[in-house]
Amino acid sequence: MRERTSPTAAKAAPRRTAVSVDVVLLTPHGKTLATLLRRAPDLRSRERWMLPWDGARTDEMLENAADRIARDALGAAPAWLEQIGAFGDARRHPGEADISIAFVGLVAAGAPAPVGGDEAWFPLADIPALPPRHKQVIDTAFEAVRLRLDQVPIAFRLLPPTFTLTDLQGIYEILLGRRLHKASFRRALQTAWLVEPTDEWRSEGRGRPAQLYRFAPRKRRVSRRGVRFDLLGA
Amino acid sequence: MRERTSPTAAKAAPRRTAVSVDVVLLTPHGKTLATLLRRAPDLRSRERWMLPWDGARTDEMLENAADRIARDALGAAPAWLEQIGAFGDARRHPGEADISIAFVGLVAAGAPAPVGGDEAWFPLADIPALPPRHKQVIDTAFEAVRLRLDQVPIAFRLLPPTFTLTDLQGIYEILLGRRLHKASFRRALQTAWLVEPTDEWRSEGRGRPAQLYRFAPRKRRVSRRGVRFDLLGA
DNA sequence: TCAATAGTGTCTGTTAGACATTATGGA
DNA sequence: TCCATAATGTCTAACAGACACTATTGA
Fold first, then answer.
1. What protein residues sit with their CB closer than 7 Å to strand C?
2. B55-89 pLDDT per residue, tens
3. Which are the contacts of B70, defined by CB distance < 8 A and separation ≥ 6?
4. Is the pLDDT of residue A227 over 50?
5. Residue B168 CA, distance from chain mean position
6. Which of A67, A56, A62, A136 has the alpha carbon at shortest distance from A99?
7. Which residue has the higher pLDDT, B232 or A56?
8. Average pLDDT for residues B87-96, to the nearest whole number?
């Protein structure tokens, strides 16, 4: 057994640490997601990119800082914003932050490309070389979104206010990484009372036009489901 | 649309911030969970408690800091340890930390009571007045454990190496906050290949003795489940 | 007309929960 | 013996996935 430090030793004030707030913005992009990267000034004028970030301020809530950073990068507020954790290992950060507090933000499909030349959307499969900590943060962000998918209305934040059920299913397929069964998907959606039809239809090339729906949750699921034991890794 | 700051403005080094690492240790306690609190020295010699915590050090990974704090408080390593996020709102922290990075640790049932008089287990329903940020951290910790319950073998970390299936079901019922069906629970457990029986039995008062099992996952669940739409709150 | 996509009805295998029954110890 | 708990078999309703079919547009 280890020797135990006296509790009063822990009363010492925390040392001062360099802390950043880093934001992963995600938006649908074809059959995958894209994330917004900012050009990092580089003395050797190479192409270098990084996540939008800023130093944490003691006079500002972390959520507010993340929202500010996201608005600066996007020109608009993301449709959803949530913290995914603090990253404090030895991986390098572009601002030399000891600790980075990361947020993930969702942006509805069809967002305009960032106006300046300093930010751009990159498909997740085609991310350029990044500071190591940022690479880790992006991976964690995608995983966090996937894990919360059926508890939080994430998919609807990645779509405009009205959308087709095929659009919605496509988002779920991107996030889950696998195809879903169309009839089952719609049945589950119906019993969950999550969407309501509008009186508009959208024609997409050939084929029958699809009805547009809006997100309009009606019922509170009491979730009396059994245990699932979907345990991963050990 | 907001005026956008130049990207180079974000290149300024983050300011120095007081950061703490705070640990929520959880263990089963009757029909609920208990968390370990440490006595906070108070000048007016009132009873004041807080979570075990320490200042973050720049020469130490956050996970290592949490593990060290947990070992100091417990006298032993917790069976599981995971970060639950950074808390940086205005709520007061006992060390005046601007930002607290919180971890949750699981301790198997039957852990010995902490040796010194400075730490004690408190049932979740009976937590004394705490620094506001610590109250929030404990609530978040319990919620984080509940949400990860069917993705990570959390319940098994709250039990000793061998346990009865009734013990295991009890842990799930504590974490889910509702009763489960015994036969269904055992069927799901069987098809998941998560436990294997030992050749020991345990007699608990009257009734037939229960066979002891150990956690021994055999199969990797490929998880081809459909979407569930268990969306909460909006 | 054909091709392509939207949307739906039916069937079937799986599974969760209810219920009942047997098993096995202690009081 | 009686009681309490463990453990399991059977039935049924709910549901997910497969399949087929109709509907409706553009080319």
1. A 164-166, 182-183, 186, 201, 204-211, 224-226, 228; B 180-181, 183-184, 187-188, 191, 201, 203, 205-209
2. 999 889 999 999 999 999 999 999 999 999 999 98
3. B23, B25, B52, B77, B78, B81, B103, B105
4. yes
5. 17
6. A56
7. A56
8. 88
